[in-house]
Design goal:
Elements lengths: L21 E10 H10 L2 H6 L2 H8 L4 H19 L12 E5 L5 E5 L1 H9 L2 E11 L2 E10 L8
Antiparallel strand pairs: 1-5, 2-3, 4-5
Helix pairs in contact: 1-4, 3-4
């Protein structure tokens, strides 16, 4: 008696199931007082770190330094999730934190940061930010194509 012929599983792992996406996580903590000091001492540094949209959003808040610190932490968390840190050709403004209509933060990637994410096979990015008791914390989660679909 002949055995049934296996189903065509070209491109699938040995078990025949699609490979799961890769998850990459980054976390960062920032002292709000440090951002407040930098803001008070010199506003010029902000232009190289934050986009005009980010600055406008934060300046409308009751405590702008809290929101700036959370956005800075989010930018660092994205870089950590990418596994690169700040590399040649990258700018802080290549990562822009915006809010959707419901107020949920979103990361928009531009320039070399976006190119790096594309090389990793990034399909989605999620960020979460908070600030309390003098610190700002952010996490970034990148969902990337399964291993082998893109070089990392």
């Amino acid at each position: 008696m002949s055995r049934p012929r296996p189903e065509n599983t070209a491109g699938l792992p040995a078990g025949g199931s699609p490979a799961p996406p890769r998850l990459r996580v980054g976390t960062d903590v920032v002292a709000i007082a440090r951002i407040d000091e930098l803001t008070s001492a010199d506003t010029g540094w902000q232009d190289g770190i934050f986009t005009a949209r980010e600055l406008a959003y934060c300046r409308r808040r009751r405590r702008p330094a809290d929101h700036l610190a959370a956005r800075f932490a989010a930018k660092e968390a994205v870089l950590k999730a990418l596994g690169t840190g700040m590399c040649a050709g990258m700018e802080w403004t290549d990562i822009e934190v915006v809010n959707d209509r419901a107020g949920r933060p979103r990361a928009r990637l531009h320039g070399e940061v976006a190119a790096t994410a594309e090389r990793l096979g990034m399909q989605q990015i999620d960020i979460s930010m908070t600030h309390s008791a003098g610190i700002a914390l952010a996490q970034a989660l990148l969902v990337c194509a399964p291993e082998g679909d893109n070089e990392s």
